Amino acid sequence: MLIGPQNLVSRLTEVRSRIKRAAEAHRRDPAAITLIAVSKTKPAALIRQAAALGVTDFGENYVQEAAEKMDALRDLQLTWHFIGAIQSNKTRVIAESYSWVHGIDRLKTAQRLSEQRPFHSPPLNVCIQVELVPEQTKAGVCPETLPELAAQIHLLPRLRLRGLMCLPPAMHDARVQSGVFERLAGLLAQLNSQGLKLDTLSMGMSEDFELAIGAGATMVRVGSALFGAR
User: Fold this and answer.
1) If DSSP codes are grouped into helix, strand and coil, which group holds residue 170?
2) Could you read off the pLDDT of 190-202 as tens digits, one per residue?
3) Is 203 within 8 Å of 178 (Cβ atoms)?
4) Cα–Cα distance between 70 and 62 in angstroms, integer?
5) Average pLDDT over residues 5-20
6) 3-state DSSP of 58-95
7) 167-177 pLDDT, tens per residue?
8) DSSP assignment string, 118-150
9) Which helix H or strand E contains 37, and what residues bound it?
10) How far apart are CA 104 and CA 203, in angstroms?
11) What is the total count of domains within the chain?
């Protein structure tokens, strides 16, 4: 479903208001929370409209589709986040084109991204995806092996480990959903207590980002609330 410019303005205003209210309710600075507009399947023209309204960060899942949009929008200063599953034959394009990767859950993938990151580019910002609620269709490292993976990724020269990401299923009980986000925040705190200096919690989507903000999210990934259903 495509939406017109005026609809986008109202949707973006509402999302920003929701972020502000959630942050202030938990005595947090709304400016410390990055809105990632999930623009997968959306045309470059719509991204350009969002950018004109002040959105700077966009999340993509599909490498080829995103490459075409990046090329069409090269005149804009945008930050691109890869938020999908990472196929081994796509790591070079991802390493060359993105500023952030949110879904690393294997050392081999991280090693390929580090090796293929251009030396003229700054280190690639990465988050480790953690599986807090087991789902066969989703990736993620289990919490028990997270410290070892984080320590290994931290040493890779062309990556900068920034934090953790989770993608839990929608839950009917807000307290349970909040508990998942709080658990990810706890895992980040544990890693920092072991010497890492991580600053990013990528969690929360259109339906639940207020709960994620309450648990400490620094990045929320919002698609349908901004752009409508896919």
Assistant:
1) coil
2) 999 999 999 999 9
3) no
4) 12
5) 92
6) EEECCHHHHHHHHHHCCCCCCEEEECCCCCHHHHHHHH
7) 988 888 999 99
8) -TTSPPEEEEEEB-SS--TTS--B-GGGHHHHH
9) strand 34-38
10) 14
11) 1
Pairwise CA distance, residues 208 & 170, whole Å:
8
**H/E run at residue 220:** strand 219-222
Q: What's the N-to-C CA distance of the chain in angstroms?
A: 6
Please tell me the distance from the alpha carbon of residue 130 to that of residue 168, in angstroms, as a whole number.
9
Domain with 51, as residue range(s), is: 5-227
Is 148 in contact with 184 (CB distance < 8 Å)? no
> Could you give the CA distance from residue 133 to residue 130 in angstroms, rounded to a whole number?
9
Kindly provide the b/e burial profile for residues 31-68, where b requires at least 16 CB atoms within 10 angstroms of the residue's own CB. eebbbbbbbbebeeebbebbbeeebebbbbbebeebee
Burial of 217 by CB count in 10 Å (0-12 exposed, 13-18 middle, 19+ buried)? buried
On the CB side of 207, how many CA atoms lie within 13 Å of its CA?
10
Q: Is the overall model pTM greater than 0.85, yes or no?
A: yes
Domain containing residue 161: CATH number: 3.20.20.10
Q: How far is CA 117 from the centre of its chain?
A: 19
Q: In this structure, which amino acid lies at residue 24? A: E
Give the type of residue at 156. L
